[in-house]
C-alpha cells in the first residue's frame, strides 16, 4: 500500500529484517555445532544416568532379597524380632575409620593407638612403682644427704626409660583420632616430687636403730637392700 517510493522503503526494511534473522540463525547453528552440549547439560545427563543406575541396583538388590525370603533363608534368624543393638558412633571420626576399627576389634585386633595407649599406661605405672620402692627405703622429710643422693641416683637410672616412654607418647598423639585423647609427656621431676612428699617412708626410729648397729652388720644390710632394690628395678624393665 502507499506510493511506489513508500512500498520500496517497506520492502527494503523487510529484506533487512530477514537478513538479520538469517544471520542470527546462522550464528546459533554454528555455536550449536561447535558446542553440542553445555556443561550444565552434561551434568544433568550424568545425574540422570546415575539415578537410573542407582535405582537399577536397588531393584536388583530388592529382587535378591525377595528371592531369598521365598527360599526361607531369613527364617529362624538368631536376632529375629529383636531391636538392633545401638552402636556408639564417634562424630569426630569419619565413617570409614570407624568401620575399619570396628572390624579389627570384632576379629580380635585393636587399632595401633589403642595398643600404644595400653603400653604407655603400664609403663607409667611401672615407673611410679619404681620410685615408690626407693621411697620406702628412705626416711621422712627432710632427707639426709645420703638419702638425697640415693633418691637422685634412682631417678637417673630411670631416665632412659622415660625418654622411651615419651617417644611412644609422641607416636600415640599422631595416631589418636581425638585431640582430647592426646597425652602429655611423663614429667619425672613432678612425679618424683609427688612420691617423695606423699609416698610411704620408713620410720626414722628404725633408721636410727640401724645406725647404732655394728658397722659390719649395717654395711651388710645396706648392700643387701641396695642390691635387692636394683634387682627389682631391672627386673621390671628386662
TrEMBL record:
Residues 60-128 form the DnaJ homologue subfamily C member 28 conserved domain. It comes from the Eukaryota. InterPro entries: DnaJ_C_subfamily_28 (IPR052573), DnaJ_homolog_subfam-C_membr-28 (IPR018961). Residues 199-221 are annotated as: Disordered. Pfam families: DJC28_CD. PANTHER family: DNAJ HOMOLOG SUBFAMILY C MEMBER 28, OS08G0560600 PROTEIN. This is DnaJ subfamily C member 28. It comes from Portunus trituberculatus. The gene is Dnajc28.
Amino acid at each position: 500500500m502507499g506510493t511506489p517510493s513508500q512500498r520500496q522503503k517497506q520492502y527494503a526494511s523487510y529484506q533487512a529484517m530477514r537478513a538479520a534473522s538469517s544471520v542470527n540463525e546462522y550464528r546459533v547453528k554454528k555455536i550449536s555445532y561447535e558446542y553440542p552440549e553445555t556443561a550444565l547439560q552434561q551434568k544433568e545427563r550424568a545425574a540422570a544416568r546415575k539415578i537410573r543406575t542407582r535405582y537399577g541396583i536397588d531393584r536388583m538388590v530388592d529382587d535378591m532379597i525377595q528371592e531369598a525370603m521365598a527360599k526361607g533363608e531369613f527364617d529362624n534368624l538368631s536376632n529375629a524380632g529383636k531391636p538392633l543393638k545401638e552402636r556408639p558412633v564417634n562424630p569426630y571420626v569419619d565413617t570409614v575409620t570407624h568401620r575399619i576399627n570396628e572390624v579389627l576389634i570384632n576379629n580380635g585386633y585393636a587399632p595401633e593407638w589403642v595398643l600404644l595407649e595400653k603400653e604407655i599406661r603400664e609403663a607409667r605405672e611401672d615407673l611410679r612403682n619404681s620410685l615408690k620402692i626407693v621411697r620406702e627405703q628412705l626416711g621422712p622429710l627432710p632427707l639426709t644427704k645420703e638419702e638425697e643422693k640415693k633418691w637422685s641416683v634412682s631417678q637417673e637410672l630411670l631416665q632412659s626409660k622415660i625418654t622411651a616412654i615419651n617417644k611412644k607418647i609422641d607416636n600415640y598423639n599422631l595416631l589418636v583420632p581425638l585431640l582430647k585423647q592426646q597425652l602429655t609427656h611423663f614429667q619425672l621431676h613432678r612425679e618424683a616430687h609427688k612420691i617423695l612428699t606423699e609416698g610411704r617412708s620408713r620410720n626414722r626410729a628404725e633408721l636410727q636403730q640401724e645406725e647404732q648397729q655394728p658397722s659390719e652388720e649395717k654395711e651388710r644390710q645396706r648392700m643387701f637392700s641396695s642390691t635387692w632394690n636394683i634387682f627389682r628395678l631391672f627386673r621390671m624393665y628386662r
